[in-house]
Amino acid sequence: xxxxSFLAGxxxxxxxxxxxxxxxxxxxxxxxxxxxxxxxxxxxxxxxxYFAEEGVEAEISDFGGGARSLQALVxxxxxxxxxxxEHTIRxxxxxxxxxxxxxxxxxxxxVIAVRKDLAGTVKSVADFKGRKxxxxxxxxxxxxxxxxxxxxxxxxATDAPLIGIGGGAGAVAAIKxxxxxxxxxxxxxxxxxxxxxxxxxxxxxxxxxxTRALFGGPNPAAVVYTKQxxxxxxxxxxxxxxxxxxxxxxxxATASPEAIADLVxxxxxxxxxxxxxxxxxxxxxxxxxxxxxxxxxxxSVLDLVRTLDAEMQSAQIDLSTxxxxxxxxxxxx
Length: 333
What we know:
The chain has helices spanning 2-22, 40-47, 50-53, 66-75, 86-93, 141-152, 169-176, 189-195, 208-215, 228-233, 235-254, 257-263, 273-283, 295-308, 326-332, and strands at 25-31, 56-62, 80-84, 98-103, 111-115, 133-135, 162-164, 182-185, 199-204, 222-227. The protein is an alpha/beta fold. The protein is globular, with a radius of gyration of 21 Å. It starts with a helix and ends with a helix.
């Protein structure tokens, strides 16, 4: 009798374990510079336990640059990417159905700056010809922003060599060592270089005014994107992932810079918490409030891509298929 009860109990426990396992889905997420404030909603979702709450086992891989994250998605080594919205447009032009499902950043928050000792001769982006410019990675949103700024200033996108410097301490070191003349980057890298007096800011898209000054309108930045066939085969997992990011955006909408600094890993703060708090304060305006980009913003990004890439000028792009808003609408309720 006792043996039958034990076996029945064991079977129930095993069934419960199987159910629990079935209720957790593993999702591989790629990111291009996780410590950057551009991707803060990802870190919030991870550190606040929102992925776990939604039954998502998030395996996060940091590739150091957005273009590399996209390559990982296309190659199949990640399922979902937190990266620049413009990648969805480029992929559509190449016949690959990659769609965003949640806007994380409504402003790029990219800063273009020159090394302080060159500020006397390099007074604007128009003076970048022949200068070495550092960006997170060639083809990433930071690289595209500086190329767009150069074209707008009357130069060609190829007039200054772009050098990939990654997203962390190596980017700071590249300026300090004089390996690059100018930089297109994000906080906290920019905040650190500003505080140390190493750079002179020329373009600042951390604010709506600065974004409009460069792009002529709003310019959605970081999004969550994936392949359409992954959405079709994993709709429940997609909803869970978006739910976690929606919780992160809602938390960020009311969180103080101090609370954010308390949440993120100390390594993200370059050993200077006060500076990090200051950087967060400057970037809070850039995060999405709704998780959905505006039509004006999506059109602005399309214009940017077409300006930079001659092949894109004749490409037929349907912006409505670059963003699937079903999941974020449910998540935001």
